Amino acid sequence: MSTESNSWLAEVKRREIVKDTLRVTVAFSKGDSSFDHVFETNQGQSDTWLGEMISWKIEQLKGIDAMSEKISEGVVDIGSITAAEEIKNHRAQYEEDLARFNKMVNATIQGIMSVDDPAFVELKQKLKAEFKPDYVDLF
Predict the structure, then answer these.
(1) CB crowding 66-75: b at 16 or more within 10 Å, else e
(2) Residue pair 79/51 in contact by the 8 Å Cβ criterion
(3) Which residues, in sequence order, are bridge partners of residue 21?
(4) Half-sphere exposure of residue 40, counting CA atoms within 13 Å on the CB side?
(5) Whole-number Cα distances in Å, 15 to 8, 22, 27
(6) Hey, which bits of the chain come out as E strands?
(7) Residue 130 and residue 7: Cα distance in Å, rounded?
């Protein structure tokens, strides 16, 4: 089986059964670049399994090609990376705080905690102050 897609060529080089596993070695190449990839399965598959696996791998390779084109050589500005990480960390902290607040709400419903409890009031105010429209899916 040989498949070509957007300059990537895939060619089955070997198929073998090792113990209870079917191993299919496929050579992928593009220009001067080439490598072998082994697809394995230890159960029955559909007739399209190998073609689907090769297509998946080619899509992965095309994604790597696209990403590679966006990377320029030289000094890397990590400012944007740091900012993105801070946003991710802030969202994770908000999610943790929201989970804790929801537990406190349950405690007030059950009469264990008062809505006037300083910890409850403080956390509610913090959640209000730090809310962003992007966080609505956390509710």
Answers:
(1) eeeeeeeeee
(2) no
(3) 18
(4) 7
(5) 21, 7, 12
(6) 2-5, 8-18, 21-30, 33-41
(7) 48
First and final CA of the chain: distance in angstroms?
49
Q: What is the pLDDT of residue 9?
A: 95
Within 8 A by CB and 6+ apart from 108, the residues are: 114, 115, 120
pLDDT on residue 53: 95
CA-to-CA distance for 90 and 130, rounded, in angstroms?
9
pLDDT one-digit tens code per residue, 59-111: 999 999 998 888 888 887 776 677 778 888 888 999 999 999 999 999 999 99
Residue 128 in this model has a pLDDT that exceeds 90: yes
| pTM of model > 0.85 | no
Task: Identify any residues that bridge with 39 across adjacent strands, giving them in sequence order.
Answer: 24
Backbone angles phi, psi at 2, to 5 degrees: -135, 130
pLDDT tens track for 25-47 = 999 999 999 999 999 999 988 99
